Every structure is written in structure tokens, then in C-alpha cells.
Amino acid sequence: xxxxxxxxxxxxxxxxxxxxxxxxxxxxxxxxxxxxxxxxxxxxxxxxxxxxxxxxxxxxxxxxxxxxxxxxxxxxxxxxxxxxxxxxxxxxxxxxxxxxxxxxxxxxxxxxxxxxxxxxxxxxxxxxxxxxxxxxxxxxxxxxxxxxxxxxxxxxxxxxxxxxxxxxxxxxxxxxxxxxxxxxxxxxxxxxxxxxxxxxxxxxxxxxxxxxxxxxxxxxxxxxxxxxxxxxxxxxxxxxxxxxxxxxxxxxxxxxxxxxxxxxxxxxxxxxxxxxxxxxxxxxxxxxxxxxxxxxxxxxxxxxxxxxxxxxxxxx
Length: 316
Ligand SMILES: [Zn+2]
What we know:
four-stranded antiparallel beta sheet; alpha+beta
């Protein structure tokens, strides 16, 4: 964890919107609608509006008319990575400006407003473990999971105190296998369906990565959700990880390519998955072998039988 410095004004001025859009695989989905103006589907809300997302390369800004997101390159990274503004600036600085920012160069001392000390957004190891998780709760079998699978992932219904109370607790580990959070899945129709600790940085973690990485296999199946990964594991594919969403963050991308040489993307067969899959594939293809496993429209891996999963993964 190195202390670092970031120059917001320089990042904003020097990093072109187009390069960031290209890096996220968004650029390819946009079409020209004016001299410096491009529009297309929005990678942030990933839903309504084929032309909702507008990018202005001249002004180096973007705006989505559906979800209201907008701003400069920093804001785009904040939305895509779900990270802080400072972290976004550091990422762009590292990636595009090749600045060694471990210390400010001496004689010139930039104005204080432009200086921010880097504290890498990462998840700290939990100092406790939930006890008394009930692996035999009916919700587990209702999701089509065996006791063995529940045991392997360490999930169970929790009725103790705290924000996980009355929910199915899913332990989340970092790439080193350290427990960094629990996600609480509602077992009723109650909202929200998933509850994460407020400080948890989803984009810094790939679910089940440490277990998949420990398997002697240079290939991995990447799915969106917890239950997708559990069902794929149960179908006989233990080298499986979940993004906990459909957006692939740069941290997640880095983790995947550091360990695996072949990535199979098995996103949901809905509009969000259909949009996110090619975007992720495009980015990963620059760094590893990647293929997209097409799940039938309206289906998702956690609703598929073991046979269906084996069949669709056996074809690729
Ligand atoms: Zn949007």
C-alpha cells in the first residue's frame, strides 16, 4: 500500500474519453451522431435506451439520458468500477500517464487541492466469523444446491444479530483466501435481495477466485452471480468464479488474466448479460483466450440443471 499522489486536473485534461471507452469495450457499441459526438447503449445502467448514452469527444464528457449518469473520464471510471473519485484518478494516472506517483517530485509542490494520498481501495480482512450458519435451511435446496455444495461454499442461514440476520450468509474471500465480507441473500421476497457491508468493494474481488485458482486448471468459467457459480461448480466445473454483477472491473480483469489463460464467459441470457458479455470478452481477448457461452434467452446458469450446464459448457 504505497502513498501516492494524484493530479486530478492533469488526468482530466490528458486522458481522452475515447481511450477509456475503448478500454471498457464501450466504444465499439457507439455510433457517430455528430462531429465529435457518439451515442449508444449505456454501460452504466445497462438497460433502457439503445441511444441513451452520449459521448462528446470534443468536450471529453459523457451523459446518459436514461440513468442520468454523466461527467468526465473520472466520473466514467467511478461508475464503471464503483470506486471513489480518487481511486478513479489513480487508475487513469497509472494506466495512461505512466507517472511514478509513489512520491511527489521534489522541487515543484503542486497545490494542495490537487494532492491526494493514495489509499488503495481494498477490502480488509474480517476480524470475526459468523457462527451457527444453517446449511440445511430449506432455501439452500430451493436454490437447487446440495448440502455438499453449501458446505463447500460455506453458506448458511443466519439468525444471529447484525445486518445478515434472517438471511442466507455467503462468505466472500479475496484472492488470497482471506474472508473479507459476507453477503446476505434474502430468503423471502423481502428487499433488498442482496445485502453487502457498506465498506465492501465488490469490484476489487472475484467471488470463489481463491478456490478456483487453487485448482490445476488454466481455464475458468466466469458467471455473474453467487448462485450461478455454485450451480456450475455443482455440475462438475469447480474452476468457476462470479463477478457479483455483470460488469467486469479492471481489478477483476487483472485477477482473471494473472491466473487463467482461458476464460469462458457464461453470463445471463437477459439484456444485461447479452450486453456485458461481448464487452468483457473484447477486453479479455487482448490478454487471454476467451469465449462466450451463450445461455438461452431469459435463462441464467442458476436456473439450469446440471445436465444443461454440462451440455452447454461441453460444447465450448
Ligand atoms: Zn445510463
